[in-house]
Design goal:
Layout lengths: L3 E12 L2 E12 L3 E5 L6 H8 L7 E6 L2 E2 L7 H5 L2 E4 L11 H11 L5 H14 L15 H13 L5 E5 L7 H16 L4 E4 L3 H7 L2 E6 L2 E6 L1 H6 L4 H8 L12
């Protein structure tokens, strides 16, 4: 087994006296793609936000290579640079061009040479089929294009772990595939990723391990084949059943 990159131990998160995440533990190895699925409100997005210390949690610990990740961490900005996060609503600056959006953090935060960052950003844009959009503004892009720019922006920070939070949720169906293909390509490159999604076919194609959350805890986890073909818990069976339909009866006249 490859080295442990990220470890979540007995995580506990409370909103207004209600536990959103309760005693959750998860270990992520280098190069592993973990897909997190579950019903709405089960804590999927909150879990990702706790991993990146965007949320304060009340108990447990998150560590990246053994270094604590929390609001109290002495070098939280430095740690966050190692954990890239892509949100479902893009979070692009509307008054900056695509290239400026991508270059901003590497140049301003990481103090990297502007010419080097520009070269890398243009190469990444070409890789996702957007090299002709470098000088465009977000308002001139489709939803799928904006999401691919957001992914490139995260990659340009050289993160050790990538978090994807329902990145296709706000997209039209025709735009979903172009974004999912970029993420699948990253998985094939051996990137360490945690992906929250409702796209079950995509989850099966990309995951090394599927983690099913329910009521703030891990209800079941396993390989894609074992989870989708032979779920062990009744709760997982009921969840997966919501994605299948029988063909309607037809009446011969």
């Amino acid at each position: 087994m490859s080295e442990v990159v990220l470890e979540i131990s007995h995580l506990h998160k409370v909103y207004e006296n209600a536990a959103v995440i309760e005693d959750l533990s998860l270990t992520v190895h280098k190069g592993e793609v973990i897909v997190i699925v579950g019903p709405s409100g089960c804590g999927k997005s909150t879990l990702l936000r706790c991993i990146n210390a965007l949320e304060t949690f009340q108990g447990g610990e998150v560590t990246l290579h053994g270094e604590s990740v929390s609001k109290k961490s002495k070098d939280l900005p430095g740690i966050r640079q190692k954990i890239g996060m892509v949100f479902q609503n893009y979070e692009l600056f509307p008054h900056y061009t695509v290239l400026e959006n991508i270059m901003l953090a590497p140049v301003k935060v990481q103090k990297r040479k502007k010419s080097d960052v520009r070269e890398e950003a243009l190469a990444l844009l070409k890789r996702v089929g957007l090299d002709n959009k470098a000088d465009s503004y977000p308002r001139q892009l489709s939803g799928g294009q904006k999401q691919r720019v957001a992914i490139v922006r995260a990659l340009c920070m050289h993160p050790e772990v990538l978090l994807f939070d329902e990145v296709t949720a706000a997209l039209d169906p025709e735009m979903v595939r172009e974004v999912l293909e970029v993420i699948l390509d990253l998985a094939n490159q051996g990137r360490t990723m945690l992906v929250v999604t409702h796209e079950m076919q995509f989850a099966r194609a990309i995951a090394d391990r599927v983690v099913f959350l329910d009521e703030g805890g891990i209800c079941e986890e396993g390989t894609p084949d074992s989870f989708f073909d032979n779920p062990k818990t009744d709760r997982a069976k009921r969840f997966l059943n919501t994605f299948t339909f029988e063909r309607k009866n037809t009446v011969m006249r």
